TrEMBL record:
All residue ranges annotated as the CoA carboxyltransferase N-terminal domain in the record: 10-265
Gene Ontology BP term (one): carbon fixation
Domain of life where this protein originates: Bacteria
Name of this protein: Methylmalonyl-CoA carboxyltransferase
Species of provenance: Actinopolyspora mortivallis
Keyword Transferase tagged: yes
Pfam families the UniProt entry points to: Carboxyl_trans (PF01039)
Range of residues in the leader sequence: none
GO cellular component terms, semicolon-separated: acetyl-CoA carboxylase complex
Length: 524
């Protein structure tokens, strides 16, 4: 049989398929390995395999090639620089895309964009999380405006999917130009330390436009993106660690906004409950670790912290109580006395909104001296940006449970999951001080004249001590709030886990509807 006749037979067609498949998948993969491995990076397909259940990845679009006329035949690579498909993680469906940096630097082109759009549409249609593994030079220069158009197409879909399916981004190499805005629009972003960079414009452009000399790491490394810019939720030691973190994160999340998060078997807390009865130091000036409180409250004491490098004065993360997912927001007295500042407010506000969108109850642990005073905060917008946290708590309709452990002063009291912002269950420890401000500040303000007189006759220490004792007796306790029903109960600290778990069960059937509206106009 001559070649042409053979091609028309089933055997011939099978042979052609084998040849094309080898070129599309095996060949592309070989090339990718040669380019990625020397840089200490996995290929797109290797990353997907590391993330998902073994053998579960179903690739789609591996035969896609650029169809326009801006690339010549030689340049039309199979897959067009992105691997897409669906798989399972712990048996649950996920949709994925993974940039292939070895093809045009993983840059966005028309065919590439079509593939990403398709997988995003699929995630929304079937209601499963979308995970993007990013490693890209941004807009594909050769494709001009088409690549920009596809960034907008993708962004529109990320925005539509927001609050409907969880969206997770992992940055595993460069993420430059338009490529940064997909992670920015998703719910969680993980960066791999040292090998990943995220910036709108790279160091060379920065130098040519502004004259600033800065290294790629200083401009867009994982450290600055996590601790200063607040773009990143977790900095991973390496690619495996990044993908492990994503797998763990998924265990706390539902597939979509119409489902509940998965339930696990109940386990014990990591620390004995009795530890909480002696945890809070006698002196208001001494701190304690809020993570110990969570260690004695959450199942196995496990907290998957998000944005731990940003505003460590507030902890945000996922845990479980009797096998059910909860989102935890907690002041951390070990950092700046757990004060609220701009970063802490925005970090917690975003977290509360995510929990609310995905049916995850919010547990708030309060030990807060108030909002951080000062011109720097005022000028950077602590009013507008601090308001986001008030907004987030007010808007949230998931069960909201709050425990005051020590200080709940001033605006901090009102903001941190107070009854007045709609919390369902508010508990306070006997060590709580729910007041406008701490005793020292209040006495100095209220009794300025008495203290001045006492200073003149040498009795200031005695007078101050008496006034402090009186103030503490009247205001620095949980009972004034309990009397008004602002806290539902003052409890022994060791009862906290039990009480929260029972309350959570009680609130399981909570339903709350907001007024009809197109959307809110929250302060952004
Ligand atoms: C086409 C690209 C590319 C791009 C990289 N490549 N970026 N091809 N379009 N945007 C190609 C390179 O030509 C090279 O091809 C291969 O990818 C690897 O790139 P290297 O430079 O060798 O790699 P590295 O040294 O690791 O540097 C990676 C990089 C750098 C930091 C990403 O390539 C870079 O700065 N790229 C340009 C980034 C950028 O300015 N993008 C456009 C932004 S504008 P060969 O064939 O040699 O292997 C934008 C606006 C969108 O995105 C806004 C929408 C809202």
């Amino acid at each position: 049989m001559v070649d042409e006749e053979f091609r028309d037979t089933t055997a011939g067609r099978m042979a052609e398929f084998e040849q094309r498949y080898r070129a599309a998948v095996v060949g592309t993969e070989q090339r990718a390995r040669q380019k990625q491995h020397p840089r200490g990076k996995h290929t797109a397909r290797e990353r997907v395999e590391l993330l998902v259940d073994r053998g579960s990845f179903v690739e789609t679009g591996e035969f896609v090639q650029h169809g326009g006329d801006c690339l010549d035949e030689e340049q039309r690579r199979y897959g067009d620089g992105v691997v897409t498909g669906h798989a399972t993680v712990d048996g649950r469906k996920v949709c994925l895309f993974a940039h292939d940096f070895s093809t045009f630097g993983g840059s966005m082109g028309e065919a590439f964009g079509e593939k990403v759009v398709k997988v995003l549409d699929l995630a929304l249609k079937i209601g499963c999380p979308l995970i993007g593994l990013n490693d890209s030079g941004g807009a594909r220069i050769q494709e001009g405006v088409t690549s920009l158009a596809y960034y907008a197409e993708v962004a529109r879909r990320n925005s539509r999917a927001s609050g409907v399916v969880p969206q997770i981004s992992v940055v595993m190499g460069p993420c430059a130009g338009g490529a940064v805005y997909t992670p920015a629009l998703t719910d969680f972003t993980v960066m791999v330390d040292r090998t990943s960079r995220m910036f709108v414009t790279g160091p060379e452009v920065v130098r040519s436009v502004t004259g600033e000399e800065i290294s790629a790491e200083e401009l867009g490394g994982a450290g600055v993106n996590a601790s200063l810019a607040g773009n990143v939720h977790y900095v991973a030691a390496d690619e495996e660690d990044a993908l492990d973190w994503v797998r763990t994160l998924l265990t706390f999340l539902p597939d979509n906004n119409l489902q509940a998060p998965p339930e696990f078997a109940e386990t014990e807390a990591a620390l004995p409950a009795s530890e909480l009865d002696t945890l809070v130091p006698d002196s208001a000036h001494r701190s304690y670790d809020m993570l110990r409180v969570l260690g004695a409250v959450l199942d196995e004491g496990e907290l998957l912290e998000v944005q731990s490098a940003l505003a460590p004065n507030v902890l945000c993360g996922f845990g479980r109580l009797r096998g059910r997912s909860v989102g935890v927001v907690a002041n951390q007295p070990m950092h700046q006395s757990g004060i609220l500042d701009i970063d802490a407010s925005e970090k917690a506000a975003r977290f509360v909104r995510f929990c609310d969108a995905f049916n995850i109850p919010v547990l708030t642990f309060v030990d807060v001296p108030g909002y951080l005073p000062g011109s720097s905060q005022e000028r950077r917008g602590v009013i507008r940006r601090g308001a986001k946290l008030i907004y987030a708590y007010s808007e949230a309709t998931v069960p909201k449970l709050t425990v005051v452990t020590r200080k709940a002063y001033g605006g901090g009291y009102a903001v941190m999951g107070s009854k007045h912002l709609g919390a369902d269950v508010n508990l306070a420890w006997p060590t709580s001080e729910i007041a406008v401000m701490g005793a020292e500040g209040a006495v100095e303000l209220l009794y300025r004249e008495e203290l001045a007189e006492a200073a003149a006759n040498g009795s200031v220490d005695k007078v101050r001590a008496k006034l402090l004792a009186e103030y503490r007796e009247e205001f620095a306790n949980p009972y004034a709030a309990a009397r008004r029903g602002y806290v539902d109960a003052v409890i022994r600290p060791s009862w906290t886990r039990q009480r929260l778990a029972t309350s959570l069960e009680m609130l399981e059937t909570k339903r709350e509807e907001g007024p009809p509206r197109k959307h809110s106009t929250m302060p952004l």
